[in-house]
Design a protein that fits this description.
Layout (H helix, E strand, L loop, with lengths): L4 H7 L5 E2 L5 E3 L5 E9 L5 H7 L6 E6 L7 E3 L1 H9 L2 E10 L2 H4 L5 E7 L11 E2 L3 E3 L2 E3 L4 E5 L2 E5 L5
Parallel strand pairs: 3-4, 4-6, 5-6, 6-7
Antiparallel strand pairs: 1-12, 2-7, 3-8, 3-11, 9-10, 11-12
Length: 159
């Protein structure tokens, strides 16, 4: 990919919403973009798995985990599933695990941190709703762009 979020911001200042720099980068892709899909969960990754199990064309899953640092919402199995199903990236407002394995998977992942503890499996949460964190509103169907400099969101495709 040849885009840079800094250039996209400069060229689309009126369209780009910039996320606060809270996230660390994991996964083999340091830059990724795609159409936003969302889940809102609390220490439960059943909906994350359900969404990543679906085939998409250039999707980015935004996971609002409430910023919890008490368990991981994505691990190597879900990261591999996402990559195999066409997901370009996953943004987790929470933790991931299996980061050493995820580093070799062809997907971009940004999260607050890592933690070895898995989540519970109740299936509670919401899919495809608007979520807010890092000073940005993430709307399903809009576009997320992520690289080494940060994350931006736009209502329409910028590339």
């Amino acid at each position: 990919m040849t885009f840079q979020t800094a250039d996209l911001c400069d060229e689309n200042l009126d369209l780009a919403r910039v996320a606060e720099p809270l996230f660390r980068s994991y996964g083999a892709k340091s830059r990724f973009y795609g159409q936003i899909h969302t889940v809102k969960v609390h220490e439960d990754n059943v909906l994350v798995k359900e969404v990543l199990a679906t085939q998409v064309d250039r999707g980015v899953l935004v996971v609002d985990g409430g910023g919890s640092l008490r368990c991981a919402l994505v691990g190597d199995i879900l990261a591999r599933m996402g990559a195999d199903n066409g997901w370009q990236g996953i943004l987790v407002y929470g933790c991931i695990r299996d980061s050493a394995v995820i580093a070799g998977i062809d997907i971009g992942i940004k999260a607050l941190n890592t933690l070895p503890l898995k989540s519970v499996k109740r299936g509670w949460g919401e899919r495809n709703g608007v979520v807010n964190f890092a000073g940005v509103q993430f709307v399903p169907g809009e576009y997320l762009y992520s690289d080494e400099d940060g994350i931006i969101v736009a209502e329409k495709a910028l590339l």
